[in-house]
Amino acid sequence: MLLEIIAPDKKLYSGEVDLVQVPGSKGSFEILRNHAPIISTLEQGRIKIVDVKGGTTFFEVDGGVIEAKNNKIIVLAETAKT
């Protein structure tokens, strides 16, 4: 799956991933390959990324929006840091 995390001032992440876990407004949830299309708001919390090589990366966000469709995930983060 292709993941992009974009903050107002720059693109923070772009790459192929196996798993993305995000702090949804109604609780944390994960997106895996072939996930049903979804759009959700995000709360303050941590995004966990597992890339195709098995490496794990974390980003702290203050909120935002996520869209997943056809194995492409876009996160628009209000503010984020690693």
Total number of beta strands: 9
Percentage of residues in helical conformation? under 10%
Cα distance, first to last residue? 21 Å
Helix/strand/pairing category: mainly beta
What is the name of the CATH superfamily?
F0F1 ATP synthase delta/epsilon subunit, N-terminal
CATH class: Mainly Beta
| CATH fold category name | ATP Synthase, domain 1
Average pLDDT number? 94
Radius of gyration: 11 Å
- Summarize the biggest pleated sheet: 9 strands, mixed
Q: What is the count of DSSP helices, taking H or I runs of 4+ residues?
A: 0
Question: What is the element string, with H for helices and E for strands?
Answer: EEEEEEEEE
Strand proportion: over 45%
Envelope shape: globular
Count of domain modules: 1
Question: How is the topology of this model organized?
Answer:
Blueprint (H helix, E strand, L loop, with lengths): L1 E5 L4 E14 L2 E6 L5 E5 L2 E7 L4 E6 L2 E6 L2 E6 L2 E2 L1
Parallel strand pairs: 1-8
Antiparallel strand pairs: 1-2, 2-3, 2-5, 4-7, 5-6, 6-9, 7-8
